[in-house]
Amino acid sequence: MFDIYINQKRNLLVLRKGSAMPVLGSPGKWRKSKKRVVKVSDEIKSAVERQGYYVRRLRTNQQRTM
Questions:
Q1: Cβ atoms of residues 53 and 7 within 8 Å
Q2: Nearest Cα to 31, choosing from 4, 55, 59?
Q3: For the segment 5-28, what is each residue's pLDDT rounded down to a tens digit?
Q4: What is the DSSP string of 15-62?
Q5: What count of other Cβ atoms lies within 10 Å of the Cβ of residue 2?
Q6: Cβ-contact 2, 37 below 8 angstroms
Q7: Of 6, 32, 38, 44, which has the fewest beta carbons less than 10 angstroms from its beta carbon?
Q8: Which whole-number Å values give the CA distances from 31 to 3, 46, 50, in the listed order?
Q9: Are the beta carbons of 48 and 16 closer than 8 angstroms?
């Protein structure tokens, strides 16, 4: 299982359940998503195994409509 966090800049952080929050270059208050995530994509899973976390920017509403 995985823990999902979102910050004010709309970045997504995926961690293995129960692992410590990494120190990232972009400071920000991360809030934990209330949704439970059991399965993630192979790309995210391999990144979490390799470096302990996965970070990416979420798309904005404007990008979704184009």
A1: no
A2: 4
A3: 988 888 889 999 888 888 876 566
A4: EETTPPPP--SS----EE-SS-B----HHHHHHHHHHSEEEEEPPPHH
A5: 18
A6: yes
A7: 38
A8: 10, 23, 23
A9: yes
User: pLDDT at residue 62 above 60?
Assistant: no
Report residue 27 as tokens.
């400071």
Q: Compute the chain's Rg from CA coordinates.
A: 12
Position 50 scores a pLDDT of 94
- Residues 54 and 13 sit within 8 Å (Cβ to Cβ): yes
Please give the single-letter amino acid code of residue 21.
M
- Give how far Cα 4 sits from Cα of 54, 60, 65, 66, Å: 10, 18, 25, 26
pLDDT 10s digits, 42-61:
999 999 999 999 999 887 65
